[in-house]
Amino acid sequence: MELSMGKLNPKQVENLTEPGTYEDGEGLRLVVKASGRKSWVLRFQLNGKRREMGLGGFPDVGLKSARLAAAEQRKLLSTGIDPMAARDAERERQRASEQAAVARAVTFNTVATDYIAAHRAGWRNAKHAQQWENTLATYAEPVIGHLPTSEVSTAHVLEILQPIWTEKTETANRLRNRIELILDAAKARGLREGENPARWRGHLDKLLPKRSKVQARTHHSALPWSDLPAFMVDLAKHSELTYKAMRLTILTACRTSEVLGAAWEEIDLETSTWTIPAQRMKAGKEHRVPLSDAALEVLSSLPRIMGSPYLFPSTRQGKHLSNMAMLMGLRRIGREDLTMHGFRSTFRDWAAERTPYPREVCEMALAHKVADGAEAAYWRGDIFEKRRSLMADWAQYATTPPAENVIHGDFKRA
What we know:
The chain is of the alpha+beta class. It contains 16 helices and seven strands. Helices cover 48% and strands 10% of the residues.
């Protein structure tokens, strides 16, 4: 049944149960289905074609709301706008807005974690996954870890890569590739659009020097970790106190000031532990250093000077070696290109690239702050034994002559 005259009223709308189409006027009608479902429809004509547009179901949309909605659509028609096309465009805008909100909520760290988890099973070993996590945590996370992947730009990528591109070229290139893969994954998930800011060809190759050019450079403040064993062999040829201080600095990954100011009372040979008091630490907190066998060997070679509390006493009464002693030692052996502080970077790069140790273990070995509150308490729990293992591995690597790392074989021609 159709009501062709008059308009509907709220009570009628509520009580109508017989299936049919009930006109309210000016194209607005209420459609009642056999199931009892009621819905509002606006019939209109556009470009000579009759069309129907749904305005929602009753009772979610009451009579008054339906009339207001119909009036809005008729207003659009009066200006030549297709109300159905306008509604579809608005829905698409809303969908894009919601998708953008989702993308903003998903950070680079989240996508990186998901990427590693998805590919871990296909990588050759757990160590490879740990290397990914370590390099990203060390270099990328401080700059873009908290950012939505949609906001990561070329400027961000350059901020990450430029400080290490000429000093740690191999690490930087691997890092660039990892960032590129993670951002590609984000794009595949609909979390970002456009070109990848970490891509090399046609993009970063125009902004950064070629690897072949920078890798040929020899003047670096930090020694590449791959060159460390040979350097330690050369260092061991010198028996002067300064060079022993340099060896202990490298083996413990401590700051030069911490080593030069070390006192015998800080060393516990029974537990192979060196406890640096808070007042001598940069962060103002006591720091325990696990001593490897190689570090203990250096300590056992040191003379104990009567009246001096220091491991590395100066010829001046009551003083330790000066802060310039190790730098001058490097110069005397022709390594003006290096700084002793750079060996902390050497250690960090080796740990990130060649070991499966968590980032927190490596950072705490360097006496860096890694967390706050409960997380920090967790890492303080059993971290020291993990650090002991890390420093033992570091010492083993550093003191193993390069020749013993070569794989020998019979390569005779057939």
